[in-house]
From TrEMBL:
<dbReference type="GO" id="GO:0016787">
    <property type="term" value="F:hydrolase activity"/>
</dbReference>
<feature type="domain" description="Helicase C-terminal">
    <location>
        <begin position="157"/>
        <end position="315"/>
    </location>
</feature>
<protein>
    <submittedName>
        <fullName>Helicase-related protein</fullName>
    </submittedName>
</protein>
<dbReference type="Pfam" id="PF00271">
    <property type="entry name" value="Helicase_C"/>
</dbReference>
<dbReference type="InterPro" id="IPR055206">
    <property type="entry name" value="DEXQc_SUV3"/>
</dbReference>
<dbReference type="GO" id="GO:0005524">
    <property type="term" value="F:ATP binding"/>
</dbReference>
<keyword id="KW-0547">Nucleotide-binding</keyword>
<dbReference type="GO" id="GO:0004386">
    <property type="term" value="F:helicase activity"/>
</dbReference>
<feature type="compositionally biased region" description="Basic and acidic residues">
    <location>
        <begin position="789"/>
        <end position="813"/>
    </location>
</feature>
<dbReference type="InterPro" id="IPR027417">
    <property type="entry name" value="P-loop_NTPase"/>
</dbReference>
<keyword id="KW-0347">Helicase</keyword>
<dbReference type="Pfam" id="PF22527">
    <property type="entry name" value="DEXQc_Suv3"/>
</dbReference>
<keyword id="KW-0378">Hydrolase</keyword>
<dbReference type="InterPro" id="IPR001650">
    <property type="entry name" value="Helicase_C-like"/>
</dbReference>
<feature type="region of interest" description="Disordered">
    <location>
        <begin position="789"/>
        <end position="875"/>
    </location>
</feature>
<keyword id="KW-0067">ATP-binding</keyword>
<dbReference type="InterPro" id="IPR050699">
    <property type="entry name" value="RNA-DNA_Helicase"/>
</dbReference>
Length: 875
């Protein structure tokens, strides 16, 4: 690079994006024997380096960026970032891209320096936006300005929902967090997106862009990094926001900045569009007009900093950085990162003591230019730079090899999330920059290769993480095939997985297809393809159901019928409690004939289950009974094997001996509290009874029946007394007690009561399995009340109704008429209630002893016998 010679030609090629400026500049450079071109981004430099290598070969092309240097011995063409352009190298051709960045607050001073001083011996070209034209004429009056017109039309399409953006869209946000949020939404709705951030390494960025360019994804989510000439096939640019943080404060994008980004839409002769999405407000007419016509207000000033620095002392260096320009439209850059770092270092006394010679001051300035790629200017970065300065000014004046190795090794890890990997890449980029200063480290070639290898590993891991998080490869494949007009093939695997084009899109649960593609824009064609194979699969499964053993089916929660772990039908209330209906799952692909075949098989299974678990109850249903026995049988059937004793007390009194024997042969046992079938108190029968009652009543207590073998449980709040009676339990004292155990407890209490007032005994507590308080509650529900305490121990007596007082000398006779009592020695009164029953024959059956009570008169329609007229038992 040298000052312009008398014969050197200077050209400023200005115009909007997609004018072919960069392509022409590279073509011009390759027409010379040597050349150099500076780009605003490392990513862009790498992209164009690869293009030129493809044309001229690796031996002829060098790449120079802050943290990457590829310098073949006989390189003729140098591709650089603007900051890294070597100022001491002479070339025939020189170009600087995006020269309008002279007006950028952060980096403008570097571009302005190149505009003023960078020249090729034969030809110099400055490429950029037309907004710099007036200032460029003033600063480089001999430059020939050539205006280039955009090759395609750029049009505004207004706001669109994120999910309605066309394919081949780039969606622009200005923070990594916002980029991630947008990418997540696009992944869910459109299958995925590539992600481009300024913090990505070239390798990770190229891998992401390759997915987009090759059509694996149709959407790109990026920061404004894409505005700086990154060439991709973008048809539409959508701004998700129009505010960015410029290092100082959030501000709205300027029209030229928006144009730089929007101009990425449309390639070569293909027209492009731009618009807004997400929370970005619509663009006003003035902005739209400016972007479509590429007409913007020119730059009013450029940033500049003195590049002829004095290294005589630390003070001279600081003063030379403060030099002002005499041009009114040139503003001195005051707070560049390297200058702020210098000011911080200069306040350290140990640094002042060592920076006492021009070489030391120059070294300090070079160290201050080590970039903090995390963009945080943290204390840890300042500490790192201080240590580097101290090490390079002490002893061998090299960084200790062990220390460098430890620093590199710290970041050589590929675990962690996206932000962790991005942070590690930022750290290793700093070390890559340091190792490219060959006079700072021992064996620089080794360390350059080491840091590059670490960065590559981190970049590959980052690309994988980005892809895993933001790309649904399955949906991306479907999109490509559908876009090409192809059809999708589907199949059902042996493990019930439904696959389309080899990718799982759902699975079969019994007779139901459960898709896991539900929120993608391509869900409809994918599910359509999957459903094409369902009729054949459902027919195959119907055959499996028909051939399956009864053991393959079970009753699940809320009356569901389960096969292979999945619900295939439900039980619903039928004509009576023992005859539930079977409703096969309402799957739209299940044909009527298949449904009937499944219902027939399940009916056979249910009949077998009912016979196996409730066989004695079915015998009662078929029994030929008459009179009171018939009425009791009906009540037991309605109660699925159990009924409260007081509900059939009147029927029970009317049983004759033969009827009692008939009921006993059917397994029915009469207790003082319940009438029940002991055989139906087994766990499997109890579980089945609970299911039948719940299906018929529509009530499904959350806790369900008691655990197998439990004879007493605390009564569940949502379970009714009817539920417990139906499963062979009865509620007493806040507990549900199994019928047989309840009768044992009641019998023990009756025996104690025969002796008069009684106390709760240890035997009672042991048999009931409860404490004193709970036992007292049980006694209350069994018809006892607390009497007088004896020695502070409660006593219980039967609870009886108080008789009505009658006039003295009268008794209530049969028929309700009073009669005179006989005097002492008078005739014996007739027994109340009629003649005494004959004595039981020796060896004959004894009916269970009950505590009887008088029943009020009952109307004919209230009599339990009223239902017998409609009860039809098998003859």
């Amino acid at each position: 690079m040298s000052s312009m010679t008398q014969d050197g030609r200077i050209t400023a090629m200005l115009g909007p994006t997609n004018t072919g400026k960069t392509y022409l500049a590279i073509e011009r450079m390759l027409g010379h024997a040597s050349g150099m071109i500076g780009f605003p981004l490392r990513l862009l430099a790498r992209e164009n380096y690869d293009r030129i290598v493809a044309l001229k070969g690796k031996h002829a092309v060098a790449l120079i960026t802050g943290e990457e240097k590829i310098l073949p011995p006989r390189a003729r063409y140098f591709v650089c970032t603007v900051e890294s352009m070597p100022t001491d190298r002479f070339v025939d051709f020189l170009a600087v891209d995006e020269i309008q960045l002279c007006g950028d607050r952060e980096r403008g001073h570097v571009f302005t320096d190149r505009l003023l001083h960078a020249r090729g011996r034969q030809e110099t070209m400055f490429l950029g936006s037309d907004i710099i034209r007036p200032l460029l004429k003033k600063l480089v009056p001999k430059a020939e300005i050539v205006t280039r017109q955009r090759l395609s039309k750029l049009s505004y399409t207004g706001p669109r929902k994120l999910t309605r953006l066309p394919r081949r869209s780039a969606i622009v946000a200005f923070s990594a967090a916002d980029v991630y949020v947008l990418a997540e939404i696009v992944r869910r709705q459109r299958g995925g997106a590539a992600v481009v951030l300024g913090a990505l390494s070239p390798r990770a960025r190229n891998a992401q862009v390759a997915m987009y360019q090759e059509g694996e994804v149709d959407y790109l989510i990026a920061t404004d990094a894409i505005g700086m000439g990154l060439n991709m096939d973008v048809d539409h640019v959508a701004f998700a926001e129009d505010m960015k943080f410029d290092g100082r404060a959030p501000r709205r994008l300027t029209p030229p900045e928006m144009a730089q980004i929007a101009g990425r839409a449309g390639r070569h002769m293909n027209d492009g569009t731009f618009g807004v999405t997400a929370d970005c407000p619509p663009l006003d007419e003035e902005m739209v007009e400016a972007l479509e016509s590429h007409s913007f207000d020119p730059l009013r000033h450029v940033y500049w900093r003195n590049s002829r620095l004095s290294f005589g002392s630390l003070g001279l260096l600081r003063r030379s950085l403060e030099t002002h320009s005499e041009e009114p439209h040139v503003i001195r850059k005051r707070d560049a990162e390297d200058q702020r770092t210098l000011e911080a270092m200069a306040r350290i006394e140990a640094v002042q003591d060592r920076a006492t010679s021009p070489d030391r001051v120059k070294l300090l300035w070079d160290i201050c230019q080590i970039p903090d790629f995390r963009k945080t200017m943290s204390e840890s970065h300042a500490q790192l730079l201080s240590k580097i300065f101290f090490d390079l000014t002490d002893g061998p004046e090299r960084l200790a090899t062990d220390w460098v190795a430890n620093q590199v090794k710290r970041h050589d890890r590929t675990d962690g999330d996206i932000d962790t990997l991005v942070n590690r890449i930022a750290h290793i980029r700093t070390w890559t920059y340091i190792t490219h200063r060959g006079d700072w480290v021992s064996d620089p070639v080794h360390w350059q290769a080491s840091t590059r290898a670490v960065e590559d590993r981190l970049s590959d891991a980052l690309h994988d993480k980005l892809t895993q998080r933001f790309v649904d490869k399955r949906a991306a494949l479907f999109m490509r095939k559908l876009k090409d007009g192809g059809s999708l093939s589907a199949a059902v695997k042996s493990d019930s997985t439904v696959v389309v084009e080899g990718h799982a899109v759902g699975h079969m649960e019994g007779l139901k297809f459960v898709p896991d593609v539900v929120d993608s824009a391509n869900a409809k064609p994918v599910l359509t393809a999957a459903r094409k194979v369902l009729p054949e699969e459902l027919a195959r499964r119907t055959g499996q159901i028909e051939a399956a053993d009864n053991a393959a089916f079970s009753v699940g929660p809320k009356g569901s019928v389960v096969w292979l772990g999945a619900e295939i039908a439900r039980l619903e209330a039928g004509a009576d409690i023992l005859s539930p209906q079977i409703r096969v799952a309402n799957e739209e692909m299940l044909e009527g004939e298949l449904r009937k075949r499944i219902e027939t098989r399940l009916r056979t299974w249910l009949t077998g289950e009912t016979q196996e678990r409730l066989g004695p109850l079915l015998e009662i249903k078929q029994a030929e009974l008459e009179g009171a026995a018939r009425g009791i049988a009906f009540q037991v059937l309605e109660g699925i094997g159990g009924v409260s004793s007081d509900k059939v007390s009147s029927l029970r009194r009317d049983l004759d001996d033969e009827q009692r024997k008939s009921l006993a042969r059917l397994g029915i046992r009469f207790g003082t509290e319940t009438v029940f079938l002991p055989v139906l108190l087994k766990p499997k029968a109890v579980e089945f009874r609970a299911m039948l009652w719940s299906v018929f009543s529509g009530q499904f207590p959350e806790e369900g029946p008691p655990p197998a073998g439990r004879v007493m449980v605390t009564r569940a709040e949502d379970a009714s007394d009817e539920f417990y009676l139906a499963i062979g339990y009865k509620r007493v004292g806040g507990h549900a007690v199994r019928a047989d155990m309840l009768e044992r407890v009641a019998q023990m209490v009756r025996q104690a009561a025969r002796e008069g007032a009684f106390a709760i005994s240890a035997d009672m507590l042991s048999l009931a399995g409860v404490g004193h308080e709970a036992m007292a509650a049980i006694l209350t529900d069994l018809g006892y009340r607390r009497g007088e305490d004896v020695e502070e121990e409660p006593r219980f007596i039967p609870r009886r109704r108080e008789p009505k007082r009658r006039p003295e000398g009268e008794q209530k006779p049969k028929g309700g008429k009073p009669r005179q009592q006989t005097g002492e020695g008078g005739e014996k009164r007739e027994r109340k209630g009629g003649p005494r029953k004959p004595k039981r024959k020796e060896g004959g059956p004894r009916g269970p002893k009950v505590i009887s009570s008088k029943e009020p008169a009952m109307r004919p329609e209230d009599s339990p016998f009223a239902v017998l007229q409609q009860l039809k038992l098998a003859k």
